[in-house]
Design brief:
Largest sheet: none
Mean pLDDT: 86
Number of helices: 20
Oligomer: single chain
Distance between the termini: 35 Å
Number of strands: 0
Order of helices and strands: HHHHHHHHHHHHHHHHHHHH
Structural class: mainly alpha
Length: 462
């Protein structure tokens, strides 16, 4: 059986995987008040658990792309999804901060792998003019996952299971509701593995692709890559780390990705503490993730349209990213807006800009790196993202929380050694200072890419 437009069905699978990825990630955030109460966690410990997840994410980024290049897209994505799904289910066994941190560390080791593997799938199945849109579509799965997570996991966590399964309290103990939420959301990932194994192959090995689609992909690949048969081995680590594009893109993501991490992990807390929204009113945060989905689609769609007009892919990404960078200074007015609705409108605009930027900087990696080493370079670049997220997390925690009344853990001590002057300088200044900082991150990163020579790199790598 042949399936018309098989490459778009691949994107559907990647979209669903991204939804599951973010549902599993956001389960902790959505249930944080309940879990913090059950496990006796304060906000600083909550920040540490997030950072432990991000540290694992960083480590996994450094190796997951290499794994994808070595064992292929199909096998690597199966492994990553299975790994994080199992660890998400194991989170139900957490009995304290240490065990919760261990399971979230395991989750981070698995979840990072989807992005280099998915980018590799796009490079195998899509021509340049469609790549940004394809990346935008599956990245939108992350924003959909973040949007629907509270509506899935909160009902799962608050359902009265004891009436149906009287022995469940003895089996799972205190907090059986949120523990079941972790088990069921993790189980969904294991179900996803079945269609992935059945459907995914490289185009030339797929029995489902039509002849016309395969011919189109092969023609586009020869025209865009010009790779000879002699250059099929992945770059060595020395080649990856000596490639200027790796460092330019890594630094750009380190600078800009903290904006998206902030909206994932801290924006609901900002609305609660500074805007006095109740737990029920915090459901309004769905509009933030919906805006992120709009940004993902717009960023990919507009970039693809520009490429179709004959503009080089790298130039088209940079034009879209410039517009995004010019939107971001609106962030400086979010905290000072007296009207909540105006504050949310400004937030939506900056989130749209941040995600459209993210889609295009991700596409830049696919544009300038040969397919045989795409996973490795993408993973190293993305590691900069999580490092930026960790730094943001520590800075924001210092801005909005006082000293913890619990003994400092090893993570606190480690970050204090590295960031102590910065943390002391911003301590107690509140969210407004962070919104001001976010106004300048994307413009700085765009200038770094332009004057760092991203255009010249794009003409010399393939």
């Amino acid at each position: 059986m042949k399936i018309k437009g098989m490459r778009w069905w691949i994107i559907v699978l990647l979209f669903v995987a991204a939804v599951l990825n973010y549902v599993d990630r956001q389960t902790l955030s959505a249930l944080a008040p309940t879990i913090q109460l059950d496990l006796d966690m304060d906000d600083q410990e909550y920040a540490n658990v997030i950072n432990i997840f991000l540290i694992a994410y960083t480590i996994a980024y450094l190796i997951s792309g290499r794994v994808a290049d070595k064992i292929g897209t199909r096998a690597s994505l199966f492994f990553f999804v299975a790994w994080w799904s199992v660890f998400n289910m194991l989170t139900a066994a957490a009995r304290g901060v240490n065990s919760l941190s261990f399971y979230r560390f395991g989750l981070g080791l698995g979840e990072a792998g989807i992005w280099p593997a998915a980018s590799k799938a796009v490079s195998e199945w899509f021509p340049a003019k469609e790549r940004a849109l394809a990346i935008g579509l599956y990245t939108m799965g992350a924003t959909v996952g973040a949007t629907i997570a509270p509506y899935i996991v909160i009902p799962l966590a608050t359902y009265n299971y004891v009436e149906i399964i009287p022995n469940i309290a003895n089996w799972l103990g205190n907090g059986q509701g949120w523990r079941i939420a972790f088990i069921l959301t993790g189980l969904a990932g294991l179900v996803w593995l079945i269609p992935w194994l059945i459907i995914y192959r490289q185009p030339e090995k797929s029995k489902l692709i039509t002849t016309s689609e395969l011919t189109m992909l092969q023609t586009a690949s020869r025209a865009e890559d010009g790779e000879s048969s002699e250059r099929v081995n992945p770059w060595s680590w020395k080649q990856v780390l000596s490639f200027r594009g790796t460092w330019l893109l890594l630094l750009a993501r380190l600078i800009t990705d903290p904006v998206w991490y902030f909206y994932q992990f801290w924006f609901p807390k900002y609305l609660s503490s500074d805007r006095n929204l109740t737990q029920e009113q915090l459901k309004i945060t769905w509009v933030i993730y919906a805006a992120a989905g709009v940004g993902s689609l717009l960023g990919g769609f507009i970039s693809g349209k520009i490429v179709k007009k004959g503009v080089m892919p790298v130039a088209s990404r940079m034009w879209v990213m410039l517009v995004c960078a010019l939107l971001m200074p609106l962030s400086a007015f979010i905290a000072s807006a007296t009207d909540l609705n105006m504050s949310l409108i400004l937030t939506l605009l900056t989130v749209i800009g941040a995600l459209a930027w993210l889609i295009n900087i991700s596409s830049l990696v696919v544009d300038i790196v040969p397919k045989h080493s795409l996973g490795t370079v993408f993973s190293v670049v993305a590691a900069g993202s999580t490092v930026g997220g960790i730094i943001m997390n520590m800075i924001v925690a210092s801005m909005v929380t006082g000293p913890s009344n619990k003994p400092a853990g090893f993570l606190d001590k480690a970050f204090d050694m590295l960031l102590d002057p910065v943390l002391n300088a911003v301590q107690g200044q509140g969210y407004a200072q962070w919104f001001l900082i976010m106004a300048f991150l994307h413009p700085i990163a765009w200038l770094l890419l332009k004057f760092g020579g991203i255009y010249k790199i794009s003409t010399n790598t393939k």
